[in-house]
Write a structure and sequence with these properties.
Blueprint (H helix, E strand, L loop, with lengths): L5 H14 L5 E5 L6 E5 L1 H7 L1 H8 L4 E3 L2 E6 L4 H13 L9 H13 L3 H14 L1 H6 L1 H9 L5 H13 L2 H4 L9 H8 L8 H16 L10 H11 L13 H8 L8 H12 L32 H9 L14 E8 H4 L3 H8 L5 E7 L5 E6 L7 E3 L5 E5 L8 E5 L7 E3 L10 E3 L4 E4 L14 E14 L1
Helix pairs in contact: 1-4, 2-3, 5-6, 12-13
Length: 466
């Protein structure tokens, strides 16, 4: 019968790392002004890392007074200590690291060829740092693109970007995206975005690269040549036949000077001649047939909001649902522009329907506020629940601008009254279109909703478990 003492063995090796007894490797980690000398043992490094095994066997490292000398200015002392501690005793703690440090650690362990950590850190980022990955999409995407081994993170990013491309395409950093990455994204058949929007973003990117203004009447011959030369690699990737006739005329045809003439001819024929089928060409096939998407009947939100709502309902803090895993249907109960803009219409359509998500567009803005009522809107008075929440999209077109707050005084989670609109804790809609928000955080955390605002449109969706 064998007895295993892995924990004790790990502690002993950790003690060896900390005491540095018999070290024969000196590593200078970091760059000026922060450089630290770290000591290690060549035998342990060779056993645990292909990088060091190769380095020692090929005499990469400088040797002085019987000790190997390594200089690693691209890895901070703090991160190198974390890596060495893992090499010695197999332990690593990522939760206390800053977001960027986790990403830099991933890059470092890739360089040092520690495959176990490459897989582990990718999994940690995907499961625990979703918000960080979204907020820094352009720079992180380019970093991942440079490291072919980051397969899990790359697939995660591509799936997320294709589900919610506007987060990247409408970001401030989109214009800095490298051409090779943009081409890769435009090749995707599952890019969930209207084709005319993709075309407009491509043009915006091209204009920025060549410092050309978006006014064809002021283009010189040189401007036309520059844009035509830059855009030619992307033109076959745009699904022009999916663009509506009006958009084609006003947003595509005006750029005919940079498009192939045979393409313009075929598109004109397609839009003018009744019942004609698209001409076979070098254009990529329609994305529509490849998009297996959720359905949502809304003028305020898009399909990318639905997985987010479902994740909040189930309190999934790190790993959100995607469009393929959402466990709820969202059925439109009430649309103020059609059903009546008053309290009685709201209650007529929404009372006693169970759990609902309500959304309100603030007048003269793109801001969307709303909340989740897991109970119903019937009755009179306050209702208790631990599961309700309020949300505030500063820009309803960009889901990364959201602030979320779960109820913190459960006795005042939802207020129901026939003379009130959707009212939850600190957010009161008494005259329906004019609402007030008390931001002192008594009932819900302060999520920066305006203290007074006018609602332009309401929508309420019944939440139904599939």
């Amino acid at each position: 019968m064998s007895t295993k003492f892995f924990a004790e063995l790990s502690k002993d090796y950790e003690k060896l790392f900390e005491t540095e007894i018999g070290y024969d490797v000196i590593i200078y980690a970091g760059e000026e002004p922060i450089v630290k000398e770290i000591h290690a043992h060549s035998n342990i490094l060779c056993i645990r890392s292909q990088y060091f095994r190769t380095a020692f066997s090929n005499d990469w490292a400088e040797k002085s007074n019987g000790k190997f000398i390594f200089k690693k200015p691209n890895i901070s002392p703090h991160l190198f200590n974390i890596i060495l501690r893992f090499i010695y005793c197999g332990n690593i703690e990522l939760k206390n690291l800053q977001n960027l440090d986790v990403l830099n650690l991933l890059i470092a362990v890739d360089e040092l060829n520690i495959q176990q950590l490459v897989t582990h850190i990718q999994e940690f980022l995907i499961n625990n740092k979703t918000e960080f990955l979204h907020q820094n999409s352009t720079s992180i995407l380019e970093t991942i693109y440079q490291h072919e081994i980051f397969i899990d993170l790359w697939n995660f990013y591509l799936e997320k970007i294709c589900e919610e491309p506007k987060v990247l395409f409408y970001s401030d950093n989109f214009l800095n995206l490298k051409a090779s990455l943009l081409e890769l994204l435009l090749k995707r058949d599952d890019l969930n975005m209207d084709e005319i929007e993709i075309w407009e973003c491509l043009l915006k990117w091209c204009f920025a690269q060549q410092s050309v203004k978006n006014d064809t009447t002021k283009w010189s011959k040189e401007d036309i040549v520059k844009i035509e030369k830059l855009s030619c690699r992307f033109i076959p990737l745009i699904r022009f036949y999916d663009i509506k006739p009006a958009d084609f005329f006003y947003k595509v045809y005006c750029y005919k000077d940079i498009l192939p003439q045979d393409l313009i001819h075929d598109l004109l024929k397609f839009h003018i001649v009744p019942n004609i089928k698209p001409t076979k060409s070098s254009l990529a096939l329609s994305r529509k047939q490849n998009l297996k998407l959720l359905k949502i009947n809304s003028t305020l939100i898009g399909l990318n909001h639905i997985p987010l709502f479902a994740s909040w309902i189930d309190k999934k803090d790190s790993s959100h649902y995607n469009d393929k895993t959402v466990p709820y249907d969202f059925r439109l109960l009430y649309y103020s522009s059609k059903d009546g803009f008053d309290n009685s219409s709201f209650h007529k359509n929404c009372d006693n329907k169970g759990a609902t998500i309500w959304i309100a567009k603030i007048q003269d803005s793109t801001q969307l506020i709303g909340g989740y009522n897991p109970l119903d809107w019937g009755g009179n008075g306050w209702k208790y629940t631990t599961d309700s929440f309020l949300f505030n999209f500063i820009d309803g077109n960009n889901i990364s601008t959201v602030n979320l707050g779960y109820v913190n005084n459960t006795n005042y989670a939802v207020y129901c009254d026939n003379y009130y609109g959707p009212t939850m804790g600190d957010l009161t809609c008494l005259s329906f279109n004019n609402c007030t928000y008390n931001n002192n955080g008594h009932y819900y955390p302060n999520i920066n909703i305006p203290t007074n605002f006018t609602v332009e449109v309401y929508e309420v969706f019944q939440v139904i478990k599939k």
